[in-house]
Amino acid sequence: MKPSEKVTQAQREILDAVRTYDTIIIHRHIRPDPDAIGSQVGLAELLKNSFPAKRIYSVGSLPDNLSFLAEMNHAEPSDYHNALVIVTDTANEGRIDDNRYRLGQRLIKIDHHPGEDAYAETEWVDPSASSCSEMIANFWLAFPEELKMNAQAARLLYAGIVGDTNRFLYDATSPDTMRTAASLMEQGFSHTEVNHQLTQINSKVAKLTGYVLENLEIRPSGAAQIVLTQETLSRFGLTDADTHSVVPLPGTIEGVTLWGIFVEQEDGVFRCRLRSKGPVINGLAARHDGGGHPLASGANAKDLAEIHQIIAEMDELGANWQERSTQ
């Protein structure tokens, strides 16, 4: 199918808005991952290359472990006057980084997470996409005569796809994902270097990896979990931002079908990263101040008691999955 045959009404509205506004400010979610940075700054670079006369900003905080991907811009409150604001990779309004996003004249949401939080005037939401970065790349492919890709934008979007698919291992990876990634790889950046940068860990995280594998609790249901307290993180000299690379680890263990990594934050609440190889977990996440994809979700627990409740629900999901699988 030709890219032009895939064009949606939302995509047309977004391009029309981009044409109209001289200033475009792009936001994404707090505690960004490679897809958040990739889609945000990848879109910014794509638009800068396509519309060089426009002023385009990428705003928000950037953790040190992702500084190799891009740099953020500084935008003044006055820059939002008569500006188009685009938020990428953010399902819930409360998770948007930098609360000035409402200062613009028009707000657009581009996201691949299923959700009901409609906070923008124009929304392009595609839960079938592997990542928001894949969506941005498909936006380019839908309008190849007007949107001009370059190596920097392609590098960022490729990194976002690789990050959210765990190097194309997750079920969300489709044939379209692979075709889109191939189109980006043709743009002249080193995909090998990107892959190395995304998978490389320092010695502190390597030691945490060993700790996770050694202390992971695996239940007969196939549910697995580990709690990383502030005390544990301090022992390794790490913060929550450094724990991203350990999230896929339990999934490499035979017999584990769903798992949770529970990381204590500085305020005492726990960030819950939930993953699955089969049981649908986004309903569970929604019951605990979260949400996400059927097999990859996030939630929040106010204390250890709520963590134990989440683990009990995971245990039930795993047991039910096992029972259905043997029927």
What would you note in describing this structure?
The protein is of the alpha/beta class and 327 residues long. The protein has two domains: 3-198, Alpha-Beta Complex (inorganic pyrophosphatase (n-terminal core)); 203-326, Diaminopimelate Epimerase, Chain A, domain 1 (Roll), CATH 3.10.310.30. It has helices spanning 9-20, 34-50, 132-142, 151-165, 175-185, 191-199, 203-215, 230-236, 282-286, 304-326, and strands at 23-27, 55-58, 84-88, 106-111, 122-125, 217-218, 223-228, 258-264, 270-276, 291-292, 296-301. α2 packs parallel to α3 (132-142), α2 (34-50) packs antiparallel against α4 (151-165) and α4 crosses α6 (191-199). The protein is globular. The mean pLDDT is 94.
Keywords:
327 residues; inorganic pyrophosphatase (n-terminal core); Diaminopimelate Epimerase, Chain A, domain 1; 2 domains; 6-stranded mixed sheet; 5-stranded parallel sheet; 38% helix
Give a nutshell description of this structure:
38% of the residues lie in helices and 17% in strands. Strand 7 (223-228), helix 8 and strand 8 (258-264) form a beta-alpha-beta unit.
Mean of residue pLDDT values = 94
The residue ranges in which pLDDT falls below 50 over 5 or more consecutive positions are: none
Q: Roughly what fraction of the amino acids lie in strands?
A: 15-25%
CATH class of the largest domain: Alpha Beta
The structure class reads alpha/beta
How many individual helices?
A: 10
**What's the helical proportion of residues?**
25-40%
**What is the N-to-C order of secondary-structure elements (H for helix, E for strand)?**
HEHEEEEHHHHHEEHEEHEEH
